[in-house]
Amino acid sequence: MQNLRSAAFAIAGLAFVGIAAAFAVSLTLIVGALLTVTMAVRMLLPRAKRQPVYARAKRREDLRVWNDGKGTIIDL
Known about the structure:
The chain is mostly helical. Helix content is about 55%, strand content about 10%. Keywords: Membrane, Transmembrane, Transmembrane helix.
């Protein structure tokens, strides 16, 4: 009876390890597939060109310069 119980526990343990391994492999494949699809989409989609943003200085009277002790700050 003891040998039969030990054999049942061994089979149950092996089945549990097999199920855990199958779950880990399937989860790895799913994450790998998602990453592959994400990389492919990012590679294939055209990226919008960045347009330059031109800044205009305010009138010369509005120019403010001060020193905060760490460096000179020029506010345009």
